[in-house]
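Q: I have 320 residues here and want to know how they pack in 3D. Can you give me a structure?
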Amino acid sequence: MFIVQAFKPGNKFWKYLAGSVIVIGASFVGQIPWIIAIALEKLKSGRPMPVDEAGIMKFLDLNLTLFFILLSFAIAMVALVLVVRKMHYQKFREIITSRPKVDWKRVFFSFMVWGIFSAGMILLAYYSEPGKYILQFDPGKFAVLAVIAIVMIPIQTSVEELVFRGYLMQGFGLLAKNRWFPLVMTSVIFGGMHIFNPEVAKMGYIVSVYYIGTGLALGIMTLMDEGTELALGFHAANNLIAALLVTADWTAFQTYSVFKDVSEPTAGFDIVLPVLVIYPLLLLLFSYKYKWKGWREKLTGKIVLQLQENNELINTETHE
């Protein structure tokens, strides 16, 4: 079982707190090349140093900025691998899935479903309200963007998923010995981590409902499917399609995408529509395809552990 893989002799919750600090610290270290590049550009061009986030995002070429942002996640991934293996003495696969090996068909199916849906919705929005978008396609800049995005955005989204739906999901499960607490905590923390995104500053804290709801949907996928594969595919598709197809001055990623949203953003029903309608339908699709059963047990069940003579931990479950 996915969460139970954290229940090993010597594994303690404090290690997850320390491990999280290490991974976050590694991501900050990964931003040093970006800081150096900005400083070099300042010396070369004589332009004043940017003093706000908008200025920082546009100080360098957008493709170069995107590369440096994503580079910090690559460094964080290395740190996460080391933390899992050296601090928790687990196989890295164990924070990805409970299956003997990663089910890439699940990853690609989730990626395909959400990628097609996301691209379709963006194109629908462009053709139904063309005044809100401009076509800014530049073949040369887009080609560079595509290479950077296709190679590095899956690393970024995988780090986020494996930290929240893998590492911390198991850590909070180890602490609480149930399933509902890690589901709620990882979703709230996931939403909280996005509170500094420029979208929140532009539209208000109501956007947090979307981020927390997204975290909740991804957590449900993970618990019901006993692995992060579906969440990995979803998150990669979501960010990759957004980076390639549409950008705006108020989004986290500034890219040479095909379209640019020039409308004034507002927080309306479209913020809660995915949480209340689209995500439940997506979960029903996955449930039908992968024959999910025992929703109450898998989402709220307690974890009762017994120590065998060979010191391996196995689990039985009761219901709340």
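Q: Anything worth noting?
A: The beta strands are 133-135, 246-247, 259-261, 302-307, 313-318. The first helix runs from residue 13 to 29.
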